[in-house]
């Protein structure tokens, strides 16, 4: 039976993938988590090389999806060594362990490997990360692909999807400020109108990964670098406007036309998804429908007083 290991199953993307694979019959799925280990999950610290080797030897997966990472640019900038331990060294541990068993590895990377000055970017475009997060993810890509030919790097842009807290995604993290800016006498919310993003729905990415796993199970694995992206360009200011509309509130939002983040971020990293599209892989949920589903589900679970 085809066996898949999902590493980082407790995270924003990992949870969507677990949900997607529940619809797949005939596969065995093993999930790992770190600080939020659920009853169906194996506790694994991916920074521990020995533990990774033991996990892969014990479970003997045919495919490993690595969704564990430090994905917060400000945290990476502050502590690049800690970011490298997760985003580079851990990927290297899995690459070595998977090579020994000839398992296929799919590792998630980011559009932040590019500098955002000349979109759209192809898988083979020249990377030039602007911050520690992007540098660590690029190094992780290279660590994987240098160690094994039986692997795929899947680059993704800004993600949103079902959440357990607003802060889990840089899209939904805007909600508290949007709500505050809709209060009578509330503070206006300053929103970035400089950088263009392509918010991508995690259930769509999960479907892409399931289709890639299916190819692997069929003996036709995709290897090298692939990219998947939503196709609606928008700034965070526009994202905030759409969220306010979905929430049915009138928020006082102010467009900030110059970059204001302490950590440098690229302006427009539009990822070309043509390689996967040519394989007939993919789905794009319109942003307004996706964000409404996320907001409705979260508010149903956390009714406001
Ligand atoms: N979110 C985005 O907008 C975005 C955009 C582009 C690319 N990506 C990439 O997509 C992938 C998934 O991101 P995400 O947003 O799902 O991240 P996330 O929600 O922050 O989840 C991170 C995952 O990593 C696990 N983890 C953290 N430290 C660990 C450790 N020492 N050992 C084992 N597991 C550990 C966490 O486990 P616990 O929760 O159990 O501690 C969690 O499952 C990452 O590679 C990220 O770089 C994300």
UniProtKB/TrEMBL annotation:
Any idea what this protein is called? dTDP-4-dehydrorhamnose reductase
Q: Which reaction does it catalyse?
A: dTDP-beta-L-rhamnose + NADP(+) = dTDP-4-dehydro-beta-L-rhamnose + NADPH + H(+)
Pathway assignment reads: Carbohydrate biosynthesis; dTDP-L-rhamnose biosynthesis
**Listed SUPFAM superfamilies:** NAD(P)-binding Rossmann-fold domains
Q: Which InterPro entries match?
A: dTDP_dehydrorham_reduct, NAD(P)-bd_dom_sf, RmlD-like-bd
Which organism is the protein's source? Paraburkholderia bannensis
This entry's Enzyme Commission designation comes to 1.1.1.133
The record's function comment reads: Catalyzes the reduction of dTDP-6-deoxy-L-lyxo-4-hexulose to yield dTDP-L-rhamnose.
The enzyme's main class, written as a single word, is oxidoreductase
Out of the domains of life, which is the source? Bacteria
């Amino acid at each position: 039976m085809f066996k898949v290991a999902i590493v980082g199953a407790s995270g924003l993307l990992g949870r969507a993938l677990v949900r997607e694979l529940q619809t797949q019959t005939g596969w065995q799925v093993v999930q790992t988590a770190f600080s939020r280990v659920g009853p169906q999950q194996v506790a694994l610290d991916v920074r521990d090389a020995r533990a990774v080797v033991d996990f892969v030897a014990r479970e003997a997966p045919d495919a490993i999806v690595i969704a564990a990472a430090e994905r917060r640019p400000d945290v990476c900038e502050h502590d690049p060594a800690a970011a490298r331990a997760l985003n580079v060294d851990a990927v290297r541990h899995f690459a070595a362990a998977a090579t020994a068993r000839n398992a296929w590895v799919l590792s998630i990377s980011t559009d932040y490997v590019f500098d955002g000055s000349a979109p759209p970017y192809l898988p083979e475009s020249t990377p030039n990360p602007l911050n520690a997060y992007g540098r660590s993810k690029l190094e992780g890509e290279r660590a994987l692909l240098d160690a094994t030919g039986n692997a795929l790097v899947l680059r993704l842009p800004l993600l949103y999807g079902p959440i357990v807290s607003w802060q889990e995604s840089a899209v939904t993290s805007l909600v508290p400020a949007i709500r505050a800016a809709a209060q009578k006498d509330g503070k206006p919310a300053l929103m970035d109108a400089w950088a263009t993003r392509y918010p991508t729905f995690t259930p769509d990415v999960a479907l892409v990964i399931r289709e890639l796993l299916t190819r692997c199970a069929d003996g036709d694995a995709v290897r090298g670098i692939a990219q998947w992206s939503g196709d609606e360009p928008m700034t965070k200011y526009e994202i905030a406007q759409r969220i306010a509309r979905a929430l049915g509130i009138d928020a006082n939002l102010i467009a900030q036309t110059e970059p204001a983040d302490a950590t440098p971020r690229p302006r427009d990293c539009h990822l070309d998804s043509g390689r996967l599209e040519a394989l007939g892989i993919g789905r794009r949920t319109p942003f307004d429908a996706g964000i409404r589903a996320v907001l409705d589900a979260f508010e149903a679970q956390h009714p406001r007083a």
